[in-house]
Amino acid sequence: MTDAALSPAPVKASPFNELEVLWVRHWTDSLFSFGVKRPEDFRFRSGEFVMIGLPGEAKDGVPGKPVLRAYSIASPCWAEELEFFSIKVADGPLTSRLQKIQPGDTVLMGKKPTGTLVLDALTGGERLFLIGTGTGLAPWLSVARDPETYSRFGHVYVIHTVRSVADLAYRDFFTREIHDDPLIGDEAKAQLTYYPTVTREAFETPGRITDRIKSGDFFRDLGLPEGFDPARDRAMLCGSMAMIKEAGELLETYGLKEGSNAEPADYVLERAFVG
Questions:
Q1: pLDDT at residue 5 in the model
Q2: To bridge 108 with a disulfide, which of 16, 31, 61, 206 should be the other Cys (CB 3.0-4.6 Å)?
């Protein structure tokens, strides 16, 4: 019998990290956030996404396959824990279970973050517009807390469109709490503007963000010249497929070009979320 025959078969490394849930916050009946312990060797760029999930449910004693979905990391690249912002879907394969997690539970996370909603995919500019709908706010929570964002852009606009006022999760964070951030608080106070819109309730800035851009209300509200300028403006898009498609077409009409990690340009969107 050879030595090879006596050697045990190599154990295949898991493609997932098993991470402890540190906290959970339920914003509404349809939105929640949670934080997990960050692996010491996990590195990512602010704005990237990663696969998050749970082990598959066993049937007849046979373990099921893990259920995973792509989630933007809502923490900046320097954070000691990883934060995620999620919808709740009653019959969703993942979120029907994920929404029930408690501190101390375990979730799965892929080991390879990726994505195009990163500063590296944009060329230099003066103003950065972070446009999101619903949980598409998540990558802006990361990008807006990265010191590089404020060193590269003179002003940063976080734009969040939701259906109801209650859905404006993180509103207090962007209007007050971020100003106390020990790393970028002063910069955010001087350079960050938060611009929420609500589509199905009365609100001071009502309607879809694309409609407000088309009407010019968006620019008037912010005291900006109407239109985007490809010489100075850069943008990132995340959220509903309809918004991303329409907003991308709008930016193109002003002369902005879509960029990528391989070819940085004027605006980027996350194609992994829009198909």
A1: 53
A2: 16
